[in-house]
Amino acid sequence: MSDLxxxxxFQTSEKKDGNEDFYDNTDNVMIYDNYQTEGSPAPPKLxxxxxxxxxxxxxxxxxxxxxxxxxWADNANLTSERDELQSSYSDVxxxxxxxxxxxSQLENENDHLQAVNxxxxxERDELQNHIDKKTLDFEASFETLTEQRDELKKKLTxxxxxxxxxxxxxxxxxxxxxxNKKTWHESRTDCLQRGADLVVVNSREEQAFIxxxxxxxxxxxxxxxxxxxxxxxxxxxxxxxxxxxGEPNEGRNEDCVETMFYRNKHGWNDVICRGKxxxxxxxxxxx
Length: 287
What we know:
Elements: E1 7-10, E2 29-32, H1 44-164, E3 168-170, E4 173-177, H2 184-193, E5 197-198, H3 204-211, E6 217-222, E7 231-232, E8 256-259, E9 268-271, E10 278-284
Parallel strand pairs: 6-10
Antiparallel strand pairs: 1-2, 3-4, 4-10, 5-10, 6-7, 6-8, 8-9
């Protein structure tokens, strides 16, 4: 049947163009294996093939419709998913924006807390330095007070000791008046052995205190190192003096001094050091 021509004729009541053999509606399709003149009866075989082709076309159409419907459904699903994703994206974007704001707020709060922490740290360090300084001051004060306490206790102990030994207290010093007589040097040795020295007279009041005992006694004044240069036993030069009239006369190596004219406010007299006399010791003790 190689020389056969096939013709598909679309049976319909309407044509798009009278010169065309193709129509829009494919519901009624007649397929012929040979071209036949209109009105000729179709061979039975051709009718069966046409029926089969029509069925196949109908089947294909159903498949196309199903695929189309499936595509529509898929498209609807994809659209729905897209909308859901878009909504989720908007939610995530909004959430991210909120997180960004919260992060910014937290950073600001962190900066503020850091500043507060820095200030507190600075105040703590300043307070610690202040406490350390006060602690050092307190320790120094405590040490000073301890030393003063110990010194005062020693002074009180000495005060009791010298008072029990019948020493006389006057204006920051204890005084011992001997009951026997010795040379000036022997008298000084005795004072030193007692933890004192021959008296150093610094004021008119102290001289008056000595005069009240109405005795001639060695005092701690000498020019034995250099003639005419009078110095006290503690090494200080003579500044306040109470010489008796005409003294010192520098007679016969008179290098030591006694206070003898007790009836007179000025009762000092220079004499030779080897003479024996009473003496008066002084132990300075300021309470």
